[in-house]
Amino acid sequence: MNLEFSIEETVKTRYSTRTYTDQPISSETKEKINTYISTLSNPFSVKVSFKLLESNTSTNSEKLGTYGVIKGANNYIGATVEKSELALEALGYEFEKLILYLTSLGLGTCWLGGTFNRSSFKNAFEIKENEIFPAISPFGYPSSKKRIADSLVRMVAKSDHRKPWSDLFYNKNFTKLLSLADAGAYAFPLEMIRLAPSASNKQPWRILQDGTTYHFYELQAKGYSTSFGYDIQKVDIGIAACHFHLAALEKDLKGEFKKLQTPTLDVPEQTEYIFSWITA
């Protein structure tokens, strides 16, 4: 299947951009972005809404509040969804697909889930009361000048480190690790999951191969989502699903996501079944 960009190249190119230049984004590029947003969908049949905000100056943008994490950004995207089953997963899926598209256009982005003033952005984006508003991202042209703050954030979040296969992927049960050989053609989609971004780089996804089915689980960090009023790590599961699905499409691996009855397996503590990928 022809995709708008190479999933492997784009995933490996993307990084969290926290400092931006004042180079404006052309109207042609903005039109491409809006057109791409209009085509977005997700495998869970959940409506996700995107809102774009352009600030006249980076000073006005900073007044919105990103607690010093972002510098120089004049453009932001926010995503909202109404509360429903798999809503946050759907939002994570579509938002990550959009972020990968922006990366393919040469634009920098940065997932923000906790480090932005939700109240000020909620007013600026005109978010409705019935909408969950879990994340935003600045977008623009990355600055070649890195701030000390950039390095500190990356160091604290361990942004450059991803968990090994042995921490993430299992075969038939959670006591048997999945080897590259046993993963076969699905080693590539799983590797794209392994490289995915996540809140505080916690990488909460755990994937269990069961024959030709891949069960997606969330390893919940104790107390992590308490302050949000919803489980923000479910957005991360949606990001993982996006990487997996796009990689499968790129390799012409057919299948679909379905939420099954919870598989009758012994699972580690704080581990929740989310959905499955069933190969065709």
TrEMBL record:
<feature type="domain" description="Putative nitroreductase TM1586">
    <location>
        <begin position="7"/>
        <end position="248"/>
    </location>
</feature>
<protein>
    <submittedName>
        <fullName>Putative TM nitroreductase</fullName>
    </submittedName>
</protein>
<keyword id="KW-0560">Oxidoreductase</keyword>
<dbReference type="Pfam" id="PF14512">
    <property type="entry name" value="TM1586_NiRdase"/>
</dbReference>
<comment type="similarity">
    <text>Belongs to the nitroreductase family.</text>
</comment>
<dbReference type="InterPro" id="IPR000415">
    <property type="entry name" value="Nitroreductase-like"/>
</dbReference>
<dbReference type="GO" id="GO:0016491">
    <property type="term" value="F:oxidoreductase activity"/>
</dbReference>
<dbReference type="InterPro" id="IPR029478">
    <property type="entry name" value="TM1586_NiRdase"/>
</dbReference>
